[in-house]
């Protein structure tokens, strides 16, 4: 009780306000602060940012040969799996750009896919979500080439798409010569490259 009395006397002494008025003003200031914050960060955005920050960025793991079907599992829906994306049959670990490719991200549709055609055409059309680059013009192929260079520079290549796995690649998970995806036309020697 003595503490309370000292506190109320101090409030009155320093502010000239009654304790009730003082605490009412304090509460109003808190509410105003919360409302003002709400203008800048929506609650949903805040929750999304917090969730995105919960992911631990793991070192990229080499996967070797991967089929298109297997690649789908790396679309970010499983937080324990890396986020992968392929260009011209070469698979890159894009986990560090979860804000782009993770669920809810602007480019989430590309995750777990070979997005060569969509990137070449700068298209978000579902039908262009394929590694099939047949019939593209020279300038479209150039756009795709620029994307590929960007990815080679920024991300670690962790594997390559194959139409089906050979018994050897099933055993080792490593690259074998047969049944390679036919997308690429330049060498891809950046397997161990770090950003
Ligand atoms: C209004 C049109 C667009 C705007 C304003 C826009 C804007 C941006 C911005 C600001 C970034 C971040 C760049 C960075 O920080 O490195 C980005 C990244 C990206 N954009 Fe777009 N973009 C647009 C259209 C497109 C289209 C049509 C595509 C392909 C279909 C596309 C594919 C991408 C990809 C794949 C990335 C991520 C690259 C990476 O992993 O670093 N964008 N975009």
Automatic annotation (TrEMBL):
Query: Which family is this protein grouped under?
Result: Belongs to the cytochrome b5 family. MAPR subfamily.
Q: What is this protein called?
A: Cytochrome b5 heme-binding domain-containing protein
Span list, region Disordered: 164-195
Q: Where is it predominantly found?
A: membrane
Listed transmembrane segments = 20-43
Q: Which Pfam families match?
A: Cyt-b5 (PF00173)
Q: Which organism is it from?
A: Penstemon smallii
Q: What is the lineage of its organism?
A: Eukaryota, Viridiplantae, Streptophyta, Embryophyta, Tracheophyta
Query: Where is the Cytochrome b5 heme-binding domain positioned along the sequence?
Result: 66-162
Which keywords accompany this UniProt record? Cell membrane, Endoplasmic reticulum, Heme, Iron, Lipid-binding, Membrane, Metal-binding, Steroid-binding, Transmembrane, Transmembrane helix
Gene3D superfamilies linked: Cytochrome b5-like heme/steroid binding domain
Tell me the domain of life. Answer: Eukaryota
Output the Gene Ontology cellular-component terms.
Answer: endoplasmic reticulum; plasma membrane
Q: What would you give as a GO molecular function for this chain, any one? A: steroid binding
**Where is it localised?**
Cell membrane; Endoplasmic reticulum
Q: Where is the composition biased (Basic and acidic residues)?
A: 177-188
Q: Which InterPro entries match?
A: Cyt_B5-like_heme/steroid-bd (IPR001199), Cyt_B5-like_heme/steroid_sf (IPR036400), MAPR/NEUFC/NENF-like (IPR050577)
């Amino acid at each position: 009780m003595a503490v309370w009395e000292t506190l109320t006397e101090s409030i009155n002494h320093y502010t000239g306000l009654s304790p009730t008025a003082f605490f009412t003003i304090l509460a109003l200031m808190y509410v105003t602060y919360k409302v003002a914050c709400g203008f800048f960060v929506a609650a949903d955005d805040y929750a999304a940012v917090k969730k995105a920050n919960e992911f631990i960025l793991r070192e990229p793991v080499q996967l070797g040969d991967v089929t298109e079907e297997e690649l789908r599992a790396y679309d970010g829906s499983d937080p324990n799996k890396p986020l992968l994306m392929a260009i011209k049959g070469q698979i890159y670990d894009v986990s560090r750009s979860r804000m782009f490719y993770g669920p809810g991200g602007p480019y989430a549709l590309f995750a777990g896919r070979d997005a060569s055609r969509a990137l070449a055409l700068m298209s978000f059309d579902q039908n262009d979500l394929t590694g099939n680059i047949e019939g593209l013009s020279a300038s479209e192929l150039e756009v795709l080439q620029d994307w590929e260079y960007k990815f080679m520079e920024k991300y670690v290549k962790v594997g390559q798409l194959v139409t089906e796995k050979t018994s050897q690649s099933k055993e080792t998970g490593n690259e074998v010569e047969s049944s390679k995806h036919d997308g690429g036309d330049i060498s891809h020697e950046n397997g161990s490259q770090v950003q």
